[in-house]
Design brief:
The chain has 266 residues and is of the alpha+beta class. Helices cover 39% and strands 23% of the residues. The strands form two sheets. The protein has a seven-stranded mixed β-sheet, sandwiched between helices. Strand 3 and strand 4 form a beta hairpin. The radius of gyration is 18 Å and the shape is globular.
Amino acid sequence: MARSALLNVMVQAAFKAGKSLSRDFGEVQNLQVSLKGPGDYVSQADRKAEKLIREELLKARPTYGFLGEESEEIKGTDGAHRWIVDPLDGTTNFLHGIPCFASSIALERNGEIVAAVVLNPATDELYTAEKGGGAFLNDRRLRVAARKELSDSVVSCGVPHLGRGNHGKFLVELRHVMGEVAGVRRTGAASLDLGYVAAGRFDGMWERDLSAWDIAAGILLIREAGGFVTDLEGGNAMLETGTLVAGNEYIRKALSDVVHRPVPTR
């Protein structure tokens, strides 16, 4: 597969962060047995990975803006371009020694995502996409799953944790979805959930309370794999609303309809 110069910069930045995260992940697994635990160490690993990515990207394009989870936003002088970065998506997994985490990098041009990279260094899986150029897992072209019925589908979701999200609302949505699908899954990293939809591993996904850096890259991966992504109201404001529903043409609509069912009266 041919990559543009910009996508190559993004891939190089992801691998540099991934190498650092892999070293730190090995240490985290050792720290699991300690009473104190690896919490502070993981926070440092997260910030270090973002610093590596930011330096690599801004070295290549110093006028671009930069929005990352761990640092203040850099507006940039370019005005049209912005990097959107989650250096360690799946922090809780990383913290517990679960090898399901990723670095996510997206390039936004005039409000539209035009390039995307998601790397899970624990599995050596690299997802890439460019607008109009398709989506790939390593060197394999991706297509979303072709299933048309929710009853045949495995879908992914985000589960709100302690102190975050509307737990009651989620439980109602989950109750509705569980009754319609073959299975519900949660990886603990939204960027990988979206990559799995692009790869046809999951048929669909819905989630609330997301940040732009959680989903920017994954949105393009799914669209370039032939899928559809909207916010939960059917619009294109995923980065602003923090809501998302995705799948092929049929599953995205069916899943959205189920999620929007009213609260049962009994």
